[in-house]
Amino acid sequence: MTTTLESRPVPASSSTTSAPGAAISVRGVEMRFPGKDSDVLALSGLDLHIEAGQFVSIVGASSCGKSTLLRLLAGFETATDGVIELGGVPVRGPGPDRGVVFQDYGLFPWRTSMENVAYGPRRNGMSRKEARAVAGDALALVGLETAAGRFPGQLSGGMQQRVAIARALANRPSVLLMDEPFGALDAMTRSSLQEELTRIHRETGTTTVFITHSVEEAVNLSDRVIVMAGGAGSGLCGHVIADIDIELPRPRDINATEFNRYERAISGLIHGDES
Amino acid sequence: MTTLAPPAIERRTTSTPHVVPATAVRRGRGRTRRILLALPIPLAILALWWIAVRQQWQLPFGIDMRFLSDPLTVAQTWIGLAVGTGSDALSGSLWRHTAASALRVLNGFLLAAAVAIPLGILMGRLRVIRELLDSTIGILRPIPVTAWAPLSLLLIGYGDRSTIFLVFLAAFFPILLNTIAGAHAVPPRLLEAAQMLGVDRLRVLVDVVLPSAMPSITSGLRVALGLSWVVLVVGETVGITTGLGALITQARDMSRTDVIIAGMLTIGVAGLLSDALLRRALSTVTRGRPGLT
Prior knowledge:
The complex is a heterodimer of chains A (275) and B (293). Chain A has 275 residues and is an alpha/beta fold. Helix content of chain A is 33%, strand content 24%.
């Protein structure tokens, strides 16, 4: 099922591929933070491959390196060793082909929802009229056409996050990177946004990397859950300890026995590491 | 494992709306209160002033109140200066002087803003530029504008331009420093968001840093405007025939304390009005958008 967003012209961006849903390749990645007496090795020898269109969650105890990995994929940091490729092209700095949704939304407070969402397309070559049309479609995709004229300060947290998702999607990214996007929201909003995200992913087919602390959320949303461990306190660098395909039908039933088995298995892996 | 049916629960409802009309009484009371509170201290000052002159008080610092005009005389002179009802040469000249001063303040202030804001944004975000300029600005800033006056007179000469230059100097540093602080304090998340959206570095300065720094810039502008008026009088003391500072200087030569005070009060009023104008201009620019003031 194609959305109106997909039939619009794609913003001409300076970076790589423009097809929604590209494959991600991480090979031998090391992230070393220099220190005074000793360096911190956040990640070392990390290998990961994500298929185009997959929804992958990354879970793990705090400071295990999952956010670092996301920031490397986004291009905010550069790996000290190894290769990160998107659709075969190396990642060099941030760009609209990798949309990012932050936990604290990061919307521009002086711009309306419409202006926030239209900003990317506009800066990437679209005319004002085209950008507004694309932004309108993106807002419709997240169900917020009526909030187009409102400022972020006038919106609830859940609505702001939806605007942030629309803002990322308006640039037709190949990958959607989400860093604990629902962490600051209450349980009810969180649960309804999870449903929305599942729907959006089904409609756009964008490769999605989703970081969360909630195992239930990860099993609910993903095709695949990657469990990481390590980091401060454990004495080991951040590394992948398990890579699990979630073979459950959609829509997912969080009360089903099968669902709970996945949850318990994954929680066990995380907490086993913490002991 | 059987699923149990949910328990039978009766749902209670209400029809009282969430948002209701405000009660009207509150608004009027606030304004009356503000007016009543604004009056006592000015009235007390006027009363004390009157008594002090009439009774020829001797105040600390060797201030002899005999030589000061009383409030009534000042008021009469002030009106005379404004509408020309007085008998001396200065009568009716207030508008001319005020306009001359206001124009100099405007020029110096706008020039300072035009230079300090872009420079402040660059210095606040680009370390290289800040490190290049920090020491120079650090040395220049503490030099009081009054110390610049002689040099300015010698190099630029008497007249408007010298005064405008001094106003520029006074306004420049507060605007610059506040802009740097505002640019420095942009939430990093907003910058990351802009980078993620594919915005180039220069564009980010205009689209993200400038709006985010606006509250600080506004503070700087308001402080600078106040200082502009302060410095103006210094700049107008020598070799200038029109302007409120010139008026006060001429009055000093004639020992006319009533004209001096009237001039001072005019500067105070002009400063107040220009601040109100500045705030109006800024609110027009920000057009009701949140996060800019």
